[in-house]
Write a structure and sequence with these properties.
alpha/beta, 6-stranded parallel beta sheet, two-stranded antiparallel sheet, 8 strands, globular
Amino acid sequence: MSPSSSDKIALFIDGANLYATAKTLGFDIDYKRLLNEFKSRGTLLRAFYYTAIIEDQEYSSIRPLIDWLDYNGYTVVTKATKATKEFIDASGRRKVKGNMDIELAVDAMELAGHIDQMVLFSGDGDFRSLVEAVQRRGVRVTVISTIASQPPMIADELRRQADVFTDLVELQSKLGRDPSERPAPRDRETRGHMPKFLREPKGNDPHD
């Protein structure tokens, strides 16, 4: 079954995995462009973004991103985990033991009867069984990760199970953030969170 412009699509983004993959390839994901890319491929029903947040951190560097996604068309699913659950995996990558596999799998199975295509942004081999189960319900599954890194970011068994494997490096021109645009979005995103006195023009003493 080939994809059609009338296909109903759902995105399932393993946030930590996608971030690590893009970082390994040397670029940042522009989530607005990502959403628009898949809207152009069919009827986008849902775009889920899953991430663990470390408990008791006064400020999480991922919070501005989560807030932006939440207000711009994504369904954000978070889970609190403890800082003590950080570890280094066999490939030398830093990870947090707060994975969202169960949440992602439950959502995918619930939605499987309503979609034609599932797009999974992850290389985690634990998702192979989920992909197989979704395929049995007639859904075509595209997995996006990379084999361009050493070691590859995608488990071989997941890549073989997918109907389509797309290397993230091939999508860089469509999903990557233009480096020249970085300062402006960050200014816009953080301006609302700044204390008022920091937004005053230079030369004005806020205590006057």
